[in-house]
Design brief:
Length: 656
């Protein structure tokens, strides 16, 4: 089905702004016997509640609280039973069996019970996600992992393209190659009985349980999914719930309200009774003062007002840092399929981006610490990430992945070097002049205006890069993108030249960090694909022979790493070689781990679920609403203690 039919029909002629006065006074906490209500402003609307389709962060935050997974995590990142009470692999890790918790209910948006949650619900989810007709953006989580998932997807894609096998050519007269029939019964997802679920792997997979906390592995009640058809997920009544919360009210561009699910299997660990997300087009600007007035319980503190807050006796006790988050990595991508306006000279950009010396000049000219001071003016180096995979994300035999031989020098160094940048510039000018390029090269940078501080960060980078490399060489053009559907319009649409992108880990293995740069359907830097690409002067491809050779070598390294399935140390070493290759040839510029900067909050994040992958960090389960905001001193004490306790908890879990 087409993507357009999956998007929410907002149906509003004008954006409606909810007045802040409608928020009302702060409710008392549950400890006083009253309803505990958490409130937060937002300005970016969800696209869909179809969690089997979407990969959008806004969407996932809602769905992660509405539907549970087979596993969940405690506050230290230790995996715990969720909707599976227990699980075990076979001897060679090619099969995993999960024993489903009995008595869990599917309910509707009014809290009415609809059906029991059974093993069949994960089979229904897999069938939907792996059917190409549904265009799931998270199908890749099955690809190469679950047996025959890829073969089934390819067959359903063929049926879609050939209209059920009746066509042999497409609309342009190109042949449609037949694909061998694959039944979903051949896919490795089976309900042996109502409470026994078995996944069969494409190859041995030791990390498979960590895959299961992602949206595409959430269950769905099959009869309801079939009944809803294309309307599944268009509003709060077109989905069912088995998680901690029900979306009791959903009014796009007005509010969305999550209410505690009274039938929830673990409701004693849900302490916030109601979560109110209140729409305001100026949420990031109005949030801080709304917090001071007590109208909301969370606000991001923009760097432009941070100093004033820290200097204010009262406000300084309301602000704290955000916990560094290694579940997300930020990096700058060079776009090899520029689909931007002719006024920005995409053909000229193509010549430049295919020149490694040009990419290296940008790579070494970017002062990342300077840019990070926009978000973290106090300790920007704490956010710096020299690799795509963040430090502390994964380790094997006691060695952090980023310290494996191929990555160690990169991890311990700093890419910013003005002398190197200018040396690469000199080589690039000579080569690009010979190739017919004109200077300055326009470097088209985009940002989402609804993302706090991104505009300021781009301005700092523009000034800094042009200062190092000279405006005779580059002209950094900074432009805002749309606040709605930014990813689909800008990044996936190729409407940028050089831009900060991010990736969130999906499971506990270095392979997850290769997914943005995958060989098929690459919608980050487009270094591997050129289907339907029209802009550009190169005759057969938009990649030069040198670029094509490097890209091919990278994929050889990745595929070699993927083929190592049970020797964890060798697997990590191989993935480190592939990642180092991508960085050393400046296809990307590693930037930072995730951090929301400084915030005002009445939540203690250290009580929440934690995992550096999947959806654990999106969940409100286990969190309690505080009477007082968290101060910087309290945050520092809690974070220090959390790090110590986490190390102990993980060591204990590994020893079991």
């Amino acid at each position: 089905m087409k993507r357009g039919k999956k998007l929410l029909a907002l149906g509003l002629a004008m954006a409606m702004v909810l007045p802040l006065t409608a928020c009302g006074p702060k409710d008392d906490t549950s400890a006083d016997g009253e309803k505990s209500v958490y409130r937060q402003l937002y300005s970016s609307e969800v696209e869909t509640l179809n969690y089997l389709y979407t990969g959008n962060t806004n969407d996932n935050q809602m769905c992660a609280n509405m539907v549970d997974c087979l596993v969940e995590y405690d506050q230290y990142g230790v995996m715990k039973p969720g909707l599976a009470e227990s699980w075990e692999p076979n001897e060679d890790y090619t099969q995993w069996t999960f024993h489903i918790r009995e008595g869990v209910k599917w309910v509707d948006a009014d809290g009415n019970e609809v059906a029991d949650v059974t093993a069949n619900d994960w089979v229904s989810a897999a069938k939907y996600v792996c059917d190409a007709a549904n265009n799931s953006s998270t199908y890749y989580m099955y690809d190469g992992i679950v047996k025959n998932a890829s073969a089934y997807f390819d067959y359903t894609a063929y049926l879609l393209a050939s209209e059920g096998g009746t066509l042999t050519t497409d609309a342009d007269g190109n042949p449609i190659e037949p694909v061998a029939e694959v039944s979903f019964d051949d896919v490795g997802v089976t309900a042996q009985d109502d409470y026994t679920l078995v996944y069969t792997m494409e190859q041995p997979c030791t990390y498979f349980p960590s895959v299961l906390s992602y949206a595409s592995y959430m269950p769905v009640y099959g009869p309801f999914l079939e009944e809803q058809g294309e309307n599944f997920g268009v509003d709060n009544y077109s989905v069912l719930y088995n998680g901690a919360y029900i979306m009791s009210d959903f009014q796009p561009q007005i509010q969305r309200i999550l209410t505690k699910n009274e039938t929830y299997w673990d409701k004693d660990n849900v302490f916030i009774d109601e979560i109110q997300f209140l729409y305001n087009t100026s949420a990031s600007q109005l949030g801080p003062e709304s917090f001071v007035r007590g109208d909301v319980d969370y606000a991001e503190i923009n760097a432009s007002i941070l100093s004033a807050w820290l200097d204010d006796e009262e406000k300084s006790q309301m602000v704290c840092s955000s916990r560094p988050n290694v579940s997300y990595s930020y990096f700058f991508c060079f776009n090899f399929e520029p689909r931007f306006d002719e006024s920005l000279a995409p053909d000229n950009w193509l010549l430049a981006v295919n020149n490694e010396n040009f990419r290296q000049s940008i790579f070494h000219a970017l002062d990342r610490i300077n840019a990070l001071e926009v978000v973290e003016p106090e300790n920007p180096e704490d956010l710096l990430n020299n690799t795509i995979t963040p430090p502390t994300f994964a380790s094997a035999n006691g060695v952090d992945y980023t310290q494996y031989p191929a990555l160690k020098a990169i991890s311990d160094g700093d890419s910013f070097n003005e002398a190197d940048a200018l040396a690469y510039k000199e080589k690039a000018v000579e080569e690009l002049t010979a190739a017919g390029a004109t200077f300055p090269i326009q470097v088209y940078m985009r940002y989402n205006p609804d993302t706090t501080n991104w505009d300021k960060e781009c301005q700092v980078i523009e000034q800094q890069l042009e200062s190092v490399l000279g405006t005779d060489y580059i002209d950094v053009v900074v432009e805002a993108g749309p606040s709605t559907n930014f990813l689909s319009t800008v990044r996936r649409g190729g409407d940028y030249g050089f831009m900060k992108c991010n990736w969130g880990a999906d499971y506990a293995d270095p392979q997850t960090w290769t997914d943005p740069f995958k060989e098929q359907s690459n919608s980050y830097n487009f270094m591997a694909t050129d289907e339907d690409y029209e802009v550009g002067q190169m005759t057969s491809t938009n990649k030069s022979p040198e670029t094509q050779a490097l890209v091919a070598q990278y994929y050889e390294l990745v595929n070699a790493a993927k083929s190592i399935t049970t020797d964890e140390e060798a697997r990590y070493a191989a993935f480190a070689e592939a990642e180092a290759f991508l960085i050393e040839h400046a296809f990307v510029v590693p930037f930072s781990i995730s951090n929301s900067g400084y915030v005002a909050t009445r939540l203690n994040i250290f009580e929440a679920e934690y995992a550096p992958y999947g959806l654990a960090l999106q969940r409100f389960k286990f969190q309690k609403l505080r009477e007082e905001p968290m101060s910087m001193d309290e945050y520092t004490q809690l974070y220090t203690q959390w790090l110590t306790d986490r190390d102990a908890a993980l060591a204990e879990a590994e020893g079991q």
